[in-house]
Structures are given as structure tokens and as C-alpha cells.
Write a structure and sequence with these properties.
By secondary structure, the protein is mainly alpha-helical. The chain is built from 13 helices and 6 strands. β1 and β2 form a beta hairpin. The longest helix is centred in the C-terminal third of the chain and has 22 residues.
Length: 357
């Protein structure tokens, strides 16, 4: 039986976080962000839907359609911005959120664009979209995972299956699967990248508004390792969700095997996972996996992550990102909003997937 006290704490944290999140929106859409912050709204459609903010969701859909949609139907991520190397991941999130918000014009157009960008050899989604002088050379965990989710909701099952095979190959190639998780494959030969490129040595802090434009490989998502002082475990959250949901659709055992391998890496982190890691959406992926493949170890991770989320919530309803080098008060508005959204996704998963008897 699930702990009713923890469930009640999560419910209160979700209510408080929802109120905090709503202040960043009104009937016109986002209210507290500069144009350069647009990428931070990648999961806003999903978050506004799960907290039931109908007015704010309607405004954000209009804002997305009129202000932030490219000619190909995808969400705009500024090419010169520090988040450009996560652009396909962000675009996939908007496609997924738009579909669940019944904005099918946005979701189908975006999914069609993603399908056109899918690498035919590996099945992966490129980290950056091609065109405007950009020639993708790598695929990564996040972009491919969101491709799977967007493909599943929009009916592109063949493309989702191909992307799932790519994630399975990425997991299978991990040289130290209990200690480190490398997140990029070469599109040229499907090889796992384990040596960081020289570009990662340059200063590129996405939390700094003055950051230089990003290289193709993101410094925060190249490799997740237990050795790091602060660990971005959330990088693997969407792979857990995508693999599990695709397994439910196809019953391919290799997909569940890959998801369990990722969960095994997270379990090896021990207390780091919930004490100092940026875990956020990881709870969603683990909850989905546990629903399909119940295990005491998964339940322990879910409950300890949820407990940590509740304990670390700020008085105003937000959270400090462990990756932000500064105080909570120094976090820019876009980051407060985006990180609160991640926590809402985690708490929503706990309440609607795990805590349901």
C-alpha cells in the first residue's frame, strides 16, 4: 500500500506549484519572458494541460501559433541561442504537448517535420534540425525519445519503432553501464560517442543569458555520470518514458530491456539520485516503468525522489535547479518557470500513475 502521508504531501506540493506556474502566463500566453527565452516554454502546453489552466493554455496555444511557429510547423528555437543544440528535443515536446491539448494542427505538422528529419540508417532524431546551414552529425537520447512520443501520439508507428531501435542500440553500447551513461550516437556509423569533443571545453552555460551560441553537442547532456558533484539524471527521463510507452504498444522485449538497463544505472546512483541530482522528470519515466514492470527497487526510487521534491520546494512554490550556480532568488524567471514545470510533471506522474490504487 502506498504511503498516504507522502501522497498528501505530493498533492499539496502540486497545488502550490500549479499556482506558482500560472503566474508566468495569462490569456495572451507567457507574461514573464524575453523573446530569447522562448525555448524555455518547450513543455508549457503539457504542463498547463495537466494543471487544468484552460485560459492560460488557450493563450499559450495562440502565442505558439502566431509568434513561435516556423513555416514547417515546428516550434521556433532560435538558431543563435544557447539552447539550439537541443532544438529537436524541444520541438518534439511541443508536438507531444500540443497533441494532448488537442491542438492537432500543431502536433501533426510538427510530427511530420520530425519524421522527415529522422535518420534512415540509425532511426535516431538529430540533435539539431537540418537546414539554414546546419548539417546534423549526431543523434541523442533526448531528441530521439521525444521523437518517439510525438510519433506515437500522431500515428507514426513505423518511425517510432525505428527510433526505439536506435535507443536500444545506444543503451547496448554503453561501456560502463553502472557508472556512466553516454547520450550521443554518430549519424555516420551509429557509433556511441565516448570522447567529449573539444567544443565542450568552451564556455556555454544555458543558464547564462550572455552565453555563446551552442555547439551541436550539449555539455550537460553528453554524459551522465555518478562521479559528477551534481548530476543531470533528468537527461534520461524521457528515454524511460518513451521506451516504456513504445513497449506497451509493440510488446518488443528489447524496449523493456533497455528501459530496465537505464533504471539500473539510476539505481546505482543511490542517494545521489534524490539528494543532489537534477532528477525532476525522471520520476515520470520510473513511474511508467514500474506500472508495467513492478519492482521494489523502482518503488523506492519513486518514493525517495517524490519525498525530496516535496522537501525542497520553496515557500513560493518553485524549486532551485541543482545545476544553477547561484541562489534561488538569482534564478532568471524563465528558469524558475521551466523547472517548476518539470517538477509538476514529476508530481503529476506520482499522483496519477504511482499513487493510484
Amino acid at each position: 500500500m502506498k504511503d498516504p502521508t507522502l501522497t498528501a504531501r505530493c498533492q499539496q506540493a502540486f497545488i502550490k506549484a500549479s499556482a506558482h506556474y500560472r503566474q508566468f502566463f495569462d490569456h495572451t500566453g507567457p507574461t514573464k519572458a524575453a523573446p530569447t527565452d522562448e525555448a524555455a516554454f518547450y513543455n508549457a502546453l503539457y504542463c498547463l494541460r495537466i494543471i487544468g489552466s484552460t485560459t492560460e493554455l488557450g493563450g499559450t496555444l495562440r502565442w505558439t501559433r502566431t509568434k513561435c511557429t516556423e513555416p514547417d510547423g515546428t516550434f521556433r528555437i532560435r538558431a543563435g541561442g544557447p539552447m539550439n543544440n537541443r532544438s529537436v528535443y524541444f520541438k518534439g515536446w511541443v508536438a507531444y504537448g500540443a497533441h494532448l491539448a488537442e491542438a492537432y494542427d500543431l502536433s501533426f505538422a510538427s510530427a511530420t517535420a520530425l519524421a522527415a528529419w529522422q535518420d534512415q540508417a540509425t532511426g535516431g532524431l538529430p540533435s539539431i534540425e537540418p537546414g539554414r546551414g546546419r548539417v546534423p552529425t549526431v543523434t541523442d537520447v533526448n531528441a530521439t525519445s521525444l521523437g518517439i512520443l510525438a510519433f506515437l501520439v500522431s500515428g507514426h508507428l513505423e518511425q517510432a519503432i525505428a527510433a526505439g531501435k536506435c535507443l536500444c542500440q545506444l543503451v547496448a553500447q554503453q561501456p560502463r553501464p553502472r557508472d556512466k551513461f553516454y547520450c550521443y550516437l554518430s549519424l555516420a556509423d551509429g557509433r556511441l560517442l565516448t570522447e567529449p569533443p573539444a567544443s565542450l571545453q568552451a564556455t556555454n552555460d544555458i543558464y547564462n543569458a550572455a552565453a555563446e551560441p551552442a555547439g551541436e553537442i550539449d555539455r550537460y547532456t553528453f554524459c551522465v555520470t555518478h562521479e559528477a558533484e551534481v548530476n543531470a539524471y533528468a537527461v534520461l527521463s524521457m528515454a524511460l518514458a518513451a521506451l516504456t510507452l513504445l513497449h506497451r504498444r509493440t510488446k518488443n522485449p528489447e524496449l523493456e530491456k533497455a528501459a530496465l538497463a537505464i533504471a539500473g544505472f539510476l539505481k546505482a546512483a543511490g542517494a545521489k539520485l534524490w539528494d543532489t541530482g537534477q532528477t525532476s522528470k525522471t520520476l515520470w519515466g520510473i513511474a511508467l516503468l514500474n506500472e508495467s514492470h513492478p519492482a521494489k527497487a523502482l518503488e523506492q526510487m519513486i518514493e525517495r525522489i517524490a519525498d525530496g521534491i516535496c522537501a525542497k520546494q520553496q515557500p513560493d512554490g518553485g524549486w532551485k535547479s541543482p545545476l544553477f550556480q547561484g541562489t534561488y532568488e538569482e534564478m532568471p524567471p524563465w528558469l524558475r518557470m521551466a523547472y517548476t514545470g518539470d517538477m509538476l510533471i514529476a508530481l503529476h506522474a506520482f499522483l496519477t500513475i504511482y499513487a493510484v490504487e
